Amino acid sequence: MSWTMEQMGLMPRHLSTEIRTPREFVLISNIEDTVGELMTYVQRRSSLVDRILTSKMFRKDAAAALGVTSELTDSDLRILLTYLARDKQVLTYDGNVIKIAAPDESPDSVSKEDRAIASLKSLMSEINEQISLLKIRIVALGEQSLKAIESKNRSLALTALRSKKAAETVLAMRTNTLFQLEDVYQNIEQASDQVTMIRVMRGSAEVLRSLNAKVGSTQDVEDTLDSLRHEMGQVEDVGTAISHPGQDNGDVDEDKVDEELDALMCESRKAEEEKATEQTMRRLASVQVPSCSDHITPDVIEDPQQTTTTETQVFSRGYDIGDLDHKSLDSPLDGERDCRNRQRNKTWERS
Q1: SS3 letters for 89-115?
Q2: Reading across the β-sheet that carries 52-54, which strands appear in turn?
Q3: Would residue 9 be called left, alpha or beta, if left means φ above 0 and alpha means ψ between -120 and 50 degrees?
Q4: Which of 27, 29, 64, 248 is most buried as measured by Cβ atoms within 10 A of its Cβ?
Q5: pLDDT digits (tens, 9 = 90+) for 200-221
Q6: Rounded to an integer, what distance in angstroms lies between the CA atom of residue 100 and that of residue 85?
């Protein structure tokens, strides 16, 4: 196509040469469909030390996240790193060191400390691989020594046992070295966490300082609360005035209330007394005093001593039969009893 356009004079010769140069192109849609699981793997790392990797470690972890059995090629690794760094902006890389950005943060450039951490992690990974190989070699040498003994080959058995002891010595050294490196790694991880904590605490202190500046001093807070209470009191007064129109909203005079209560109680007692007096007068008016002669018989008086006692009782009451109209009698029997007593006294005087 380019040659045809060049022959027709529609394209310069130097431009047609550049177009014919072979180049590599990548479809972004294919990468987006593939990198989903890899993004989950990248965003799952939260610790600062855990977010620093070597290219070898990233290659291995990315293959596991993508479900690829074989390791990624250099071209695949370069494409993934370019896409994640340029388009997604979730990491930065510089040579053999890859630094994943923290969640909700922009990626930082790779520093000297990051390179040291990456070297430490790479060394620990290599020692772990060496320990695994040494363990396999020790098992194989042990089996080889047993086979040599079974075949009566003493020299081969001694050689296998010497190699096994040497491998065990190297294994012990590698294990001790790994323990020391892991101790250093844990201290670095703890220090990085402390750095993150101090940074968060410093930011929190700045936020509190800004908020306290907006709140003001203690005096300003007290003045604000006093003003709030005053305004709330005015709202309550207005609400009371609206709910009770035409009434005095002042405090109730308790003395006046007590005086009014006493006056009402006096009027009530006076009314009760007048009612009782009226009932007593009605009862007195309804009482009929019987005649003394209607209730006297000749054989009533038998004992002079009894008559004397009766006389004493009658005169001790302090009134005579003529005063009955001015006394409060409970029943007609009281009048009859007084008449009988009076008649007994007169009969005794005649005798």
Answers
A1: CCEEEECCEEEECCCCCCCCCCCHHHH
A2: 52-54, 97-100, 91-94
A3: left
A4: 64
A5: 899 899 988 888 888 878 888 8
A6: 9
